[in-house]
Design brief:
By secondary structure, the protein is α+β, with helices and mostly antiparallel strands. The chain has two domains: about 5-130, OB fold (Dihydrolipoamide Acetyltransferase, E2P) (Beta Barrel); about 220-440, Chloramphenicol acetyltransferase-like domain (Chloramphenicol Acetyltransferase, 2-Layer Sandwich). The protein is about 25% helix and about 25% strand. The chain has helices at about 100-105, 135-140, 145-155, 170-185, 220-235, 245-260, 270-285, 330-345, 425-440; strands spanning about 5, 5-10, 20, 30-35, 45, 50-55, 60-65, 70-75, 80-85, 85-90, 145, 170, 235-240, 245, 290, 295-300, 305, 310, 315, 320, 355-360, 380-385, 390-395, 400-410, 415. The chain has a six-stranded mixed beta sheet with strand order 13-25-22-21-17-20, covered by helices on one side. A five-stranded mixed beta sheet has the order 1-7-6-4-9. Strand 23 and strand 24 (about 400-410) form a beta hairpin. Helix 3 (about 145-155) runs parallel beside helix 4, helix 7 (about 270-285) crosses helix 8 and helix 7 (about 270-285) crosses helix 9 (about 425-440). The longest helix has 17 residues, at about 425-440. The two termini are about 30 Å apart. It is an enzyme of class 2 (transferase).
Length: about 450
């Protein structure tokens, strides 16, 4: 969800009035990182305009302009680590030169002061650190955005070489140059002339002559990649599966939805039944609703259920509070609400905090047979649901034997942290979960 930046004003001269842009308050969030600037210095902005994207400890958020005007100075580079309340930019009512901004701030000769988080006086304006001497002559002639500098480093491109008649280089300029370089890869039938044998930056050896299209990672994808890699590297994962006959669940859902439809209420999903049963079983097996620490296992006394949601910009996990108190119909409404917020990009940091157990439902996307996952740290367990598919099952024939029938079958996967949990605890939980669904003996 886009957040309005915190707004203050400086200078009593209304002709040079500046508006401060600060990192806004976001619940329990304290530290953030600027991932990229979406707005260049000199561009007009409004409260609907995204200035930059920031990373919290859970997700990527957009920071909107606090007022209409012109962005006249950026005070933090992309990849800067900041705190809530830090000053990141200035807006003005009309375009201003760098010298005019300095004058409005009372900076003699544009003398730089401390950057955010470097110990400058509280509330004192901050500016970017000076460029390296080697870049000074280029910078004096070319205006390069922080985002363009970062992309230039990633793709091995000197941004100053891309300057147009306007004297400005943006991130889009660097991306276009990178894509043009990729498009110029020599076909296999006509190998490139002599080279030193080195592959292009980031390319595996042996693929130098294979054409490809570069799809830059979004800020959210970079966050997802970094966190999943860290969790996979530091937590010993194991996954156990169980087979559930879903006949009773589907029969109960059909009857229940018939009553709801007759009264004008919306139908409930299968996921709502699964979530309700998962939380009911957690109350009997609380060690799975926990966080591992070196001092011991923190067993949470409340169940706050994370729901993995697939969005165009990547996976997010909003949290449903006090999930064990919800009925199936309440679960259905809550799941649909947080999923809509996630897909519309309207989640706040508070919507993503404090989860104690997570469920994932890749079966809603396609006929996947297994739902193994990487844990949603710092949780110790995640329950994944593949597709419900018909399969042959041996069922009692009423005469002491069995017969084979095609039944709707779900094979949920419980991925767990093996440090605090052994197989026995996991198998007992899965057995309880299976029994509740196959008998529908739980309050739903």
């Amino acid at each position: 969800m886009p957040l309005a930046a915190k707004e203050n004003t400086v200078n009593d001269n209304t002709a040079n009035l500046l508006t401060e842009v600060r990192i806004p308050y976001m619940g329990s969030v304290e530290n953030v990182r600027i991932l990229e600037w979406n707005t260049e210095v000199g561009a007009p902005v409004s409260p609907e305009h995204v200035l930059c994207q920031i990373e919290t400890d859970k997700t990527v958020m957009e920071i909107n302009a606090p007022a209409s005007g012109v962005l006249v100075r950026q005070l933090a580079e992309a990849d800067s680590d900041l705190k809530v309340g830090d000053l990141i930019a200035y807006l003005a009512a009309a375009p201003m030169s760098a010298a005019q901004v300095d004058a409005a701030l009372g900076l003699a000769g544009g003398e730089p002061v401390a950057s955010p988080g470097t110990g400058g006086a509280p509330g004192h304006p901050s500016v970017l650190a000076p460029l390296n001497p080697a870049d000074a002559d280029k910078a004096s002639r070319v205006r390069i955005s922080p985002y363009a500098r970062r992309l230039g480093k990633e793709h091995g491109i000197e941004p100053a070489s891309l300057a147009s008649a306007s004297g400005r280089v943006t991130g889009d300029d660097v991306l276009r140059a990178a894509q043009a370089r990729v498009a110029a890869v020599t076909p296999i039938a006509a190998p490139a002339a002599a080279t030193d044998g080195a592959a292009p930056t980031g390319m595996a050896s042996g693929y130098e002559q294979v054409p490809y299209r570069l799809k830059p990672h979004s800020p959210r994808r970079k966050v997802i990649a970094r966190r999943l890699a860290e969790t996979a590297r530091t937590v010993p994962h194991l996954t156990a599966d169980v087979q559930v006959d879903m006949t009773r669940v589907l029969e109960a859902r059909k009857a229940y939805n018939g009553l709801r439809t007759a009264s004008g209420a919306p139908a409930v999903s299968v996921l709502a039944f699964l979530a309700r049963a998962a939380c009911a079983a957690l109350k009997s097996h609380p060690e799975l609703n926990a966080t591992y620490t070196e001092a011991g296992l923190m067993v949470w006394q409340e169940i706050h259920l994370g729901i993995a949601v697939d969005t165009e910009d990547g996976l997010v996990v909003p949290v449903i509070r006090h999930a064990d108190r919800l009925s199936v119909s309440e679960f259905d409404a809550a799941i649909k609400r947080v999923a809509a917020l996630a897909r519309d990009g309207k989640l706040t940091p508070a919507d993503l905090e404090g989860g104690t157990f997570t469920i994932s439902n890749p079966g809603s996307i396609g006929p996947v047979l297994r739902a193994e996952a990487i844990l949603n740290a710092p949780q110790v367990a995640l329950l994944g649901f593949p597709a419900v598919l018909h399969a042959p099952l041996a069922v009692p024939d009423g005469a002491g034997g069995h017969r084979i029938e095609a039944r709707p079958v779900l094979r949920p996967s419980l991925t767990f942290d093996h440090r605090p949990l052994d197989g026995g605890a996991v198998v007992r939980y899965l057995g309880d979960f299976k029994n509740r669904l196959e008998t529908m003996v739980f309050d739903w």
